[in-house]
């Protein structure tokens, strides 16, 4: 590919201006005490710094401002169980930790939430983005860890719910099966999240490095979970949806995977 072609491809995953709306303004004003006139510059500073280190589409497209966990069909259940029954949540592959903050914003105690990411850089940038580093560190909410590190996984106490946003799709088809098996060991009841999807499933080059990533259809996603868990877990719901950030359309699977006999 020519250098011009490379630039064009990169730009397809990059939007200059943050998609600030009333909801985003309200969230950052209330949670992070950032005045609206300062918000644009604050978001640009953090995003540009993060994108310079990792040119992920979710950073270039401002996907971390989408707060995907609240779009899940059982999000209200998760919040209610946390508030009334002391349920716990793990956000695995949490990136900047936006979904952890959404839970806290909606009234879940920080003591019931844990976030894990491979790269400590993202955790640190999350502290800067949400201006809550002191609280997060005091509560020891965030930690680094590798989903493929067996010894690390043994140290994690399973949570009632595990959230995985923009994570499973990073891997090829066979590796995804291994990832899903590992996630079931971290969850007592349900695994929820979203990932890149397509109407016709298939492996595609990953935009950051060209390695293969599997984009599932609802049908192939369901088959994968049936296979890797021997029907001990089942896909309760999976929807292919299209969202638009700026002028770019994204096809996403929003899913709920439930342990058998769980309601």
Automatic annotation (TrEMBL):
<protein>
    <recommendedName>
        <fullName>Methyltransferase domain-containing protein</fullName>
    </recommendedName>
</protein>
<comment type="similarity">
    <text>Belongs to the class I-like SAM-binding methyltransferase superfamily.</text>
</comment>
<dbReference type="InterPro" id="IPR029063">
    <property type="entry name" value="SAM-dependent_MTases_sf"/>
</dbReference>
<keyword id="KW-0808">Transferase</keyword>
<keyword id="KW-0949">S-adenosyl-L-methionine</keyword>
<dbReference type="GO" id="GO:0016740">
    <property type="term" value="F:transferase activity"/>
</dbReference>
<comment type="pathway">
    <text>Secondary metabolite biosynthesis.</text>
</comment>
<dbReference type="InterPro" id="IPR051654">
    <property type="entry name" value="Meroterpenoid_MTases"/>
</dbReference>
